[in-house]
Amino acid sequence: MSIYYKVILFQVLIILFPMFVYHLFFYESDRERRKPHSKLSIILIFILILSMSFPVRFAEGYIYDFRIIPFIISFVYGGTIPGLVTGIILLVYRFIISGDGFYVVLVNYSITCIVLILMKKKLESFQKKNKLLFISIVFWANTFIVMLTLFSKNQSSQISFMLFFYTITWICMMMVVFVIENVNQQMVIREKLQRDEKLNVVSQLAASVAHEVRNPLTSVRGFLQLISDDNNLQEAQRSYIKIALNELDHAQSIINDYLSLAKPNTEEMISINISEEVMKTVGLMKSYSNIQNTTIKTDIQDSLYIKGNKGEIKQVLVNIIKNGIESMGTGGILVVRSFEKEGVIFIKITDSGKGMTKQQLKNLGTPFYTTKEKGTGVGLTISFQLVHAMKGKITVESQPEKGTTFTIQFPSA
Question: β-pairing, 270-273 with 305-308?
Fold first, then answer.
Protein backbone atom coordinates (compact mmCIF):
# COMPACT_ATOMS: atom_id res chain seq x y z
CA MET A 1 0.00 0.00 0.00
CA SER A 2 2.94 2.37 0.54
CA ILE A 3 3.39 2.69 -3.22
CA TYR A 4 -0.22 3.90 -3.44
CA TYR A 5 0.40 6.59 -0.85
CA LYS A 6 3.49 7.80 -2.68
CA VAL A 7 1.51 8.14 -5.92
CA ILE A 8 -1.34 9.87 -4.06
CA LEU A 9 1.16 12.33 -2.58
CA PHE A 10 2.54 12.95 -6.05
CA GLN A 11 -1.01 13.56 -7.32
CA VAL A 12 -1.51 16.10 -4.53
CA LEU A 13 1.70 17.90 -5.56
CA ILE A 14 0.61 17.83 -9.21
CA ILE A 15 -2.56 19.70 -8.21
CA LEU A 16 -1.35 22.11 -5.55
CA PHE A 17 2.07 23.21 -6.81
CA PRO A 18 0.84 24.72 -10.13
CA MET A 19 -2.10 26.36 -8.30
CA PHE A 20 0.23 27.97 -5.76
CA VAL A 21 2.37 29.23 -8.66
CA TYR A 22 -0.81 30.67 -10.21
CA HIS A 23 -1.67 32.31 -6.87
CA LEU A 24 1.77 33.88 -6.46
CA PHE A 25 2.56 35.09 -9.97
CA PHE A 26 -0.65 35.52 -11.96
CA TYR A 27 -3.57 37.89 -11.52
CA GLU A 28 -6.46 37.34 -13.90
CA SER A 29 -9.84 39.03 -13.84
CA ASP A 30 -13.00 36.95 -14.12
CA ARG A 31 -13.35 38.10 -17.72
CA GLU A 32 -9.79 37.03 -18.63
CA ARG A 33 -10.31 33.58 -17.08
CA ARG A 34 -13.23 32.90 -19.40
CA LYS A 35 -10.95 32.85 -22.43
CA PRO A 36 -9.84 29.34 -23.57
CA HIS A 37 -6.20 30.48 -23.65
CA SER A 38 -6.25 32.08 -20.19
CA LYS A 39 -3.42 31.29 -17.77
CA LEU A 40 -5.84 29.40 -15.50
CA SER A 41 -7.10 27.23 -18.39
CA ILE A 42 -3.54 26.39 -19.48
CA ILE A 43 -2.55 25.46 -15.92
CA LEU A 44 -5.67 23.31 -15.45
CA ILE A 45 -5.03 21.43 -18.73
CA PHE A 46 -1.41 20.90 -17.65
CA ILE A 47 -2.64 19.53 -14.29
CA LEU A 48 -5.19 17.29 -16.04
CA ILE A 49 -2.67 15.67 -18.39
CA LEU A 50 -0.06 15.26 -15.66
CA SER A 51 -2.49 13.69 -13.15
CA MET A 52 -3.85 11.27 -15.77
CA SER A 53 -0.30 10.33 -16.81
CA PHE A 54 0.67 9.21 -13.27
CA PRO A 55 -2.43 7.54 -11.79
CA VAL A 56 -2.82 5.11 -8.94
CA ARG A 57 -3.27 1.63 -10.49
CA PHE A 58 -5.29 -0.28 -7.92
CA ALA A 59 -6.07 -3.29 -10.15
CA GLU A 60 -6.03 -4.26 -13.79
CA GLY A 61 -8.19 -1.73 -15.65
CA TYR A 62 -8.94 0.36 -12.51
CA ILE A 63 -7.00 3.59 -12.16
CA TYR A 64 -7.46 6.59 -9.86
CA ASP A 65 -6.33 10.17 -10.42
CA PHE A 66 -7.33 13.77 -9.71
CA ARG A 67 -8.68 14.54 -13.19
CA ILE A 68 -12.05 15.65 -11.79
CA ILE A 69 -10.43 18.67 -10.08
CA PRO A 70 -9.30 20.57 -13.22
CA PHE A 71 -12.51 19.45 -14.97
CA ILE A 72 -14.89 20.99 -12.40
CA ILE A 73 -12.69 24.02 -11.66
CA SER A 74 -12.48 24.93 -15.37
CA PHE A 75 -16.29 25.11 -15.56
CA VAL A 76 -16.79 26.96 -12.26
CA TYR A 77 -14.05 29.59 -12.72
CA GLY A 78 -13.39 29.50 -16.46
CA GLY A 79 -16.86 29.11 -17.91
CA THR A 80 -18.47 26.94 -20.56
CA ILE A 81 -15.85 27.13 -23.33
CA PRO A 82 -12.76 26.46 -21.13
CA GLY A 83 -14.75 23.73 -19.37
CA LEU A 84 -15.69 22.03 -22.64
CA VAL A 85 -12.11 22.25 -23.89
CA THR A 86 -10.86 20.62 -20.67
CA GLY A 87 -13.59 17.95 -20.87
CA ILE A 88 -12.76 17.07 -24.50
CA ILE A 89 -9.04 16.80 -23.70
CA LEU A 90 -9.91 14.59 -20.70
CA LEU A 91 -12.01 12.17 -22.79
CA VAL A 92 -9.56 12.05 -25.71
CA TYR A 93 -6.61 11.36 -23.40
CA ARG A 94 -8.64 8.76 -21.48
CA PHE A 95 -9.43 7.03 -24.79
CA ILE A 96 -5.74 7.06 -25.76
CA ILE A 97 -4.77 5.55 -22.40
CA SER A 98 -7.39 2.83 -23.12
CA GLY A 99 -8.45 0.23 -20.57
CA ASP A 100 -11.88 -0.74 -19.21
CA GLY A 101 -14.29 1.91 -18.03
CA PHE A 102 -13.99 4.46 -20.84
CA TYR A 103 -17.73 4.47 -21.49
CA VAL A 104 -18.46 4.85 -17.79
CA VAL A 105 -16.16 7.90 -17.75
CA LEU A 106 -17.85 9.22 -20.91
CA VAL A 107 -21.36 8.98 -19.43
CA ASN A 108 -20.30 10.21 -15.98
CA TYR A 109 -18.44 13.29 -17.20
CA SER A 110 -21.05 14.08 -19.87
CA ILE A 111 -23.77 14.24 -17.20
CA THR A 112 -21.54 16.38 -14.98
CA CYS A 113 -20.77 18.63 -17.95
CA ILE A 114 -24.49 19.18 -18.67
CA VAL A 115 -25.21 20.00 -15.01
CA LEU A 116 -22.34 22.53 -14.89
CA ILE A 117 -23.47 24.21 -18.12
CA LEU A 118 -27.09 24.46 -16.94
CA MET A 119 -25.92 25.98 -13.64
CA LYS A 120 -23.61 28.48 -15.36
CA LYS A 121 -25.68 31.64 -14.66
CA LYS A 122 -26.30 30.76 -11.02
CA LEU A 123 -22.64 29.89 -10.52
CA GLU A 124 -21.63 33.43 -11.55
CA SER A 125 -23.72 34.90 -8.72
CA PHE A 126 -22.62 32.40 -6.03
CA GLN A 127 -20.49 33.60 -3.13
CA LYS A 128 -17.57 31.47 -1.89
CA LYS A 129 -19.66 29.50 0.62
CA ASN A 130 -22.27 28.57 -2.00
CA LYS A 131 -19.58 27.66 -4.54
CA LEU A 132 -17.94 25.31 -2.05
CA LEU A 133 -21.29 23.66 -1.35
CA PHE A 134 -22.18 23.32 -5.05
CA ILE A 135 -18.75 21.92 -6.01
CA SER A 136 -18.94 19.43 -3.13
CA ILE A 137 -22.39 18.22 -4.22
CA VAL A 138 -21.24 17.74 -7.84
CA PHE A 139 -18.07 15.98 -6.69
CA TRP A 140 -19.77 13.53 -4.32
CA ALA A 141 -22.55 12.82 -6.82
CA ASN A 142 -19.81 11.88 -9.28
CA THR A 143 -18.17 9.73 -6.61
CA PHE A 144 -21.48 7.99 -5.90
CA ILE A 145 -21.77 7.00 -9.58
CA VAL A 146 -18.24 5.53 -9.44
CA MET A 147 -19.19 3.57 -6.32
CA LEU A 148 -22.30 2.14 -8.01
CA THR A 149 -20.15 1.13 -10.99
CA LEU A 150 -17.74 -0.75 -8.69
CA PHE A 151 -20.63 -2.58 -7.00
CA SER A 152 -22.11 -3.54 -10.37
CA LYS A 153 -18.76 -5.06 -11.40
CA ASN A 154 -18.26 -6.95 -8.11
CA GLN A 155 -15.34 -4.74 -7.09
CA SER A 156 -16.55 -4.00 -3.55
CA SER A 157 -13.00 -4.64 -2.27
CA GLN A 158 -12.02 -1.32 -3.81
CA ILE A 159 -14.72 0.71 -2.02
CA SER A 160 -12.68 1.56 1.09
CA PHE A 161 -9.67 2.66 -0.97
CA MET A 162 -11.91 4.54 -3.39
CA LEU A 163 -13.55 6.50 -0.55
CA PHE A 164 -10.16 7.30 0.97
CA PHE A 165 -8.80 8.44 -2.40
CA TYR A 166 -11.83 10.59 -3.22
CA THR A 167 -11.76 12.17 0.23
CA ILE A 168 -8.18 13.28 -0.44
CA THR A 169 -9.30 14.48 -3.89
CA TRP A 170 -12.14 16.52 -2.33
CA ILE A 171 -9.76 18.13 0.18
CA CYS A 172 -7.40 19.09 -2.65
CA MET A 173 -10.29 20.53 -4.63
CA MET A 174 -11.37 22.65 -1.67
CA MET A 175 -7.79 23.94 -1.37
CA VAL A 176 -7.78 24.84 -5.08
CA VAL A 177 -11.07 26.72 -4.63
CA PHE A 178 -9.61 28.65 -1.69
CA VAL A 179 -6.50 29.52 -3.76
CA ILE A 180 -8.60 30.90 -6.64
CA GLU A 181 -10.95 32.74 -4.27
CA ASN A 182 -7.87 34.26 -2.65
CA VAL A 183 -6.71 35.46 -6.07
CA ASN A 184 -10.19 36.94 -6.62
CA GLN A 185 -9.98 38.74 -3.29
CA GLN A 186 -6.56 40.15 -4.16
CA MET A 187 -7.97 41.39 -7.48
CA VAL A 188 -10.82 43.16 -5.66
CA ILE A 189 -8.37 44.74 -3.20
CA ARG A 190 -6.09 45.84 -6.05
CA GLU A 191 -9.00 47.43 -7.95
CA LYS A 192 -10.20 49.13 -4.76
CA LEU A 193 -6.71 50.51 -4.10
CA GLN A 194 -6.51 51.83 -7.67
CA ARG A 195 -9.94 53.43 -7.33
CA ASP A 196 -9.04 54.94 -3.94
CA GLU A 197 -5.81 56.28 -5.42
CA LYS A 198 -7.73 57.97 -8.22
CA LEU A 199 -10.18 59.41 -5.69
CA ASN A 200 -7.30 60.70 -3.62
CA VAL A 201 -5.74 62.41 -6.65
CA VAL A 202 -9.06 64.01 -7.57
CA SER A 203 -9.61 65.09 -3.96
CA GLN A 204 -6.20 66.76 -3.74
CA LEU A 205 -6.72 68.42 -7.11
CA ALA A 206 -10.16 69.67 -6.08
CA ALA A 207 -8.96 70.98 -2.73
CA SER A 208 -5.96 72.80 -4.25
CA VAL A 209 -7.55 74.51 -7.27
CA ALA A 210 -11.31 74.78 -6.66
CA HIS A 211 -11.19 77.96 -4.58
CA GLU A 212 -8.57 79.54 -6.83
CA VAL A 213 -10.79 78.94 -9.88
CA ARG A 214 -13.97 79.93 -8.06
CA ASN A 215 -12.80 83.44 -7.19
CA PRO A 216 -12.11 84.69 -10.75
CA LEU A 217 -15.31 83.00 -11.98
CA THR A 218 -17.32 84.86 -9.34
CA SER A 219 -15.69 88.16 -10.37
CA VAL A 220 -16.30 87.57 -14.07
CA ARG A 221 -19.93 86.63 -13.42
CA GLY A 222 -20.47 89.78 -11.35
CA PHE A 223 -19.07 92.06 -14.03
CA LEU A 224 -21.13 90.33 -16.73
CA GLN A 225 -24.28 90.89 -14.69
CA LEU A 226 -23.37 94.55 -14.29
CA ILE A 227 -22.80 94.88 -18.04
CA SER A 228 -26.14 93.18 -18.78
CA ASP A 229 -27.92 95.98 -16.83
CA ASP A 230 -26.63 98.58 -19.30
CA ASN A 231 -29.57 99.96 -21.30
CA ASN A 232 -27.36 100.75 -24.29
CA LEU A 233 -26.71 97.07 -25.04
CA GLN A 234 -28.09 95.58 -28.22
CA GLU A 235 -30.24 92.43 -28.11
CA ALA A 236 -27.49 90.29 -29.68
CA GLN A 237 -25.01 91.47 -27.04
CA ARG A 238 -27.48 90.57 -24.26
CA SER A 239 -27.86 87.08 -25.71
CA TYR A 240 -24.06 86.67 -25.77
CA ILE A 241 -23.85 87.72 -22.12
CA LYS A 242 -26.64 85.29 -21.24
CA ILE A 243 -24.75 82.44 -22.93
CA ALA A 244 -21.57 83.43 -21.08
CA LEU A 245 -23.43 83.45 -17.74
CA ASN A 246 -24.91 80.01 -18.43
CA GLU A 247 -21.45 78.62 -19.22
CA LEU A 248 -20.05 80.16 -16.04
CA ASP A 249 -22.86 78.51 -14.06
CA HIS A 250 -21.99 75.19 -15.72
CA ALA A 251 -18.32 75.65 -14.74
CA GLN A 252 -19.42 76.52 -11.19
CA SER A 253 -21.50 73.32 -11.06
CA ILE A 254 -18.48 71.23 -12.10
CA ILE A 255 -16.34 72.89 -9.41
CA ASN A 256 -19.03 72.13 -6.81
CA ASP A 257 -18.97 68.48 -7.90
CA TYR A 258 -15.21 68.32 -7.40
CA LEU A 259 -15.53 69.96 -3.99
CA SER A 260 -18.18 67.40 -3.00
CA LEU A 261 -15.82 64.63 -4.13
CA ALA A 262 -12.97 66.12 -2.15
CA LYS A 263 -14.90 66.46 1.08
CA PRO A 264 -18.43 65.02 1.21
CA ASN A 265 -20.50 66.43 4.06
CA THR A 266 -21.34 63.31 6.07
CA GLU A 267 -20.90 64.62 9.60
CA GLU A 268 -24.59 65.16 10.32
CA MET A 269 -26.07 61.66 10.22
CA ILE A 270 -29.66 61.89 11.42
CA SER A 271 -32.73 59.68 11.12
CA ILE A 272 -34.60 60.73 7.98
CA ASN A 273 -37.77 59.55 6.29
CA ILE A 274 -36.32 58.25 3.04
CA SER A 275 -39.83 57.74 1.61
CA GLU A 276 -40.48 61.49 1.82
CA GLU A 277 -37.07 62.34 0.36
CA VAL A 278 -37.61 60.01 -2.61
CA MET A 279 -41.07 61.52 -3.26
CA LYS A 280 -39.70 65.08 -3.04
CA THR A 281 -36.85 64.28 -5.43
CA VAL A 282 -39.20 62.61 -7.91
CA GLY A 283 -41.46 65.68 -7.76
CA LEU A 284 -38.44 67.90 -8.36
CA MET A 285 -37.33 65.83 -11.39
CA LYS A 286 -40.78 65.57 -13.02
CA SER A 287 -40.41 68.94 -14.76
CA TYR A 288 -37.10 67.74 -16.25
CA SER A 289 -38.69 64.44 -17.32
CA ASN A 290 -41.54 66.35 -19.01
CA ILE A 291 -39.03 68.36 -21.03
CA GLN A 292 -37.44 65.07 -22.15
CA ASN A 293 -40.91 63.60 -22.89
CA THR A 294 -40.37 60.75 -20.39
CA THR A 295 -42.63 59.40 -17.64
CA ILE A 296 -41.70 58.73 -14.01
CA LYS A 297 -43.72 56.05 -12.19
CA THR A 298 -43.39 55.44 -8.45
CA ASP A 299 -44.08 52.64 -5.99
CA ILE A 300 -42.87 53.96 -2.65
CA GLN A 301 -43.55 52.29 0.69
CA ASP A 302 -44.48 54.78 3.45
CA SER A 303 -42.41 55.61 6.53
CA LEU A 304 -39.02 54.12 5.69
CA TYR A 305 -36.25 55.53 7.90
CA ILE A 306 -32.46 55.51 7.50
CA LYS A 307 -29.50 57.29 9.07
CA GLY A 308 -28.14 59.83 6.61
CA ASN A 309 -27.99 63.37 5.35
CA LYS A 310 -30.96 64.86 3.48
CA GLY A 311 -28.86 67.00 1.15
CA GLU A 312 -26.65 64.09 0.17
CA ILE A 313 -29.58 61.70 -0.36
CA LYS A 314 -31.13 64.27 -2.65
CA GLN A 315 -27.85 64.71 -4.55
CA VAL A 316 -27.53 60.93 -5.08
CA LEU A 317 -31.13 60.49 -6.22
CA VAL A 318 -31.01 63.51 -8.56
CA ASN A 319 -27.79 62.19 -10.15
CA ILE A 320 -29.18 58.70 -10.79
CA ILE A 321 -32.69 59.80 -11.88
CA LYS A 322 -31.23 62.47 -14.20
CA ASN A 323 -28.87 59.91 -15.76
CA GLY A 324 -31.79 57.52 -16.24
CA ILE A 325 -33.93 60.17 -17.94
CA GLU A 326 -31.05 61.22 -20.23
CA SER A 327 -30.27 57.60 -21.17
CA MET A 328 -33.80 57.19 -22.57
CA GLY A 329 -33.57 60.21 -24.86
CA THR A 330 -37.10 61.25 -25.76
CA GLY A 331 -39.79 58.91 -24.53
CA GLY A 332 -39.52 56.00 -22.13
CA ILE A 333 -40.58 55.16 -18.59
CA LEU A 334 -38.49 55.48 -15.44
CA VAL A 335 -39.71 53.51 -12.42
CA VAL A 336 -38.72 54.47 -8.87
CA ARG A 337 -39.47 51.94 -6.12
CA SER A 338 -38.61 51.89 -2.43
CA PHE A 339 -39.35 49.16 0.09
CA GLU A 340 -37.97 47.39 3.17
CA LYS A 341 -36.88 43.76 3.27
CA GLU A 342 -35.26 42.01 6.24
CA GLY A 343 -34.10 45.25 7.88
CA VAL A 344 -32.68 46.73 4.66
CA ILE A 345 -34.16 49.70 2.77
CA PHE A 346 -34.07 49.29 -1.01
CA ILE A 347 -34.42 52.09 -3.56
CA LYS A 348 -34.65 50.78 -7.13
CA ILE A 349 -34.44 53.17 -10.08
CA THR A 350 -35.11 51.45 -13.41
CA ASP A 351 -34.99 53.10 -16.82
CA SER A 352 -35.79 51.75 -20.28
CA GLY A 353 -32.79 53.43 -21.90
CA LYS A 354 -29.88 52.24 -24.00
CA GLY A 355 -28.31 50.22 -21.19
CA MET A 356 -24.64 49.42 -20.69
CA THR A 357 -22.17 46.68 -21.58
CA LYS A 358 -20.37 44.57 -18.94
CA GLN A 359 -17.20 46.62 -19.45
CA GLN A 360 -19.08 49.89 -18.93
CA LEU A 361 -20.68 48.49 -15.77
CA LYS A 362 -17.25 47.51 -14.46
CA ASN A 363 -15.93 51.07 -14.89
CA LEU A 364 -19.06 52.76 -13.55
CA GLY A 365 -18.36 54.96 -10.54
CA THR A 366 -14.64 55.41 -11.22
CA PRO A 367 -13.42 59.03 -11.48
CA PHE A 368 -13.58 60.63 -14.94
CA TYR A 369 -15.45 57.68 -16.45
CA THR A 370 -18.68 58.64 -18.21
CA THR A 371 -20.90 57.22 -20.96
CA LYS A 372 -22.24 60.69 -21.83
CA GLU A 373 -20.68 62.95 -24.47
CA LYS A 374 -20.57 66.01 -22.19
CA GLY A 375 -20.25 64.27 -18.84
CA THR A 376 -17.38 64.81 -16.41
CA GLY A 377 -17.47 61.33 -14.86
CA VAL A 378 -17.74 62.84 -11.38
CA GLY A 379 -21.49 62.71 -10.59
CA LEU A 380 -21.76 58.95 -10.13
CA THR A 381 -18.39 58.79 -8.40
CA ILE A 382 -19.75 61.23 -5.81
CA SER A 383 -22.99 59.22 -5.53
CA PHE A 384 -21.10 55.96 -4.85
CA GLN A 385 -18.90 57.70 -2.30
CA LEU A 386 -21.82 59.37 -0.48
CA VAL A 387 -23.86 56.16 -0.27
CA HIS A 388 -20.81 54.25 1.02
CA ALA A 389 -20.21 56.96 3.65
CA MET A 390 -23.80 56.48 4.88
CA LYS A 391 -23.17 52.71 5.35
CA GLY A 392 -25.06 51.83 2.18
CA LYS A 393 -24.14 50.35 -1.18
CA ILE A 394 -25.11 50.72 -4.83
CA THR A 395 -25.44 47.83 -7.27
CA VAL A 396 -26.13 48.24 -10.98
CA GLU A 397 -27.70 45.80 -13.43
CA SER A 398 -27.87 46.61 -17.12
CA GLN A 399 -28.17 45.12 -20.59
CA PRO A 400 -27.57 46.96 -23.87
CA GLU A 401 -30.83 48.28 -25.37
CA LYS A 402 -32.83 46.90 -22.42
CA GLY A 403 -32.28 49.52 -19.74
CA THR A 404 -30.53 49.86 -16.40
CA THR A 405 -31.49 49.33 -12.76
CA PHE A 406 -29.70 51.13 -9.92
CA THR A 407 -30.33 49.53 -6.53
CA ILE A 408 -29.42 51.58 -3.45
CA GLN A 409 -29.41 49.76 -0.10
CA PHE A 410 -29.33 51.30 3.36
CA PRO A 411 -29.65 49.67 6.79
CA SER A 412 -33.00 50.54 8.34
CA ALA A 413 -32.83 53.08 11.17
Answer: antiparallel
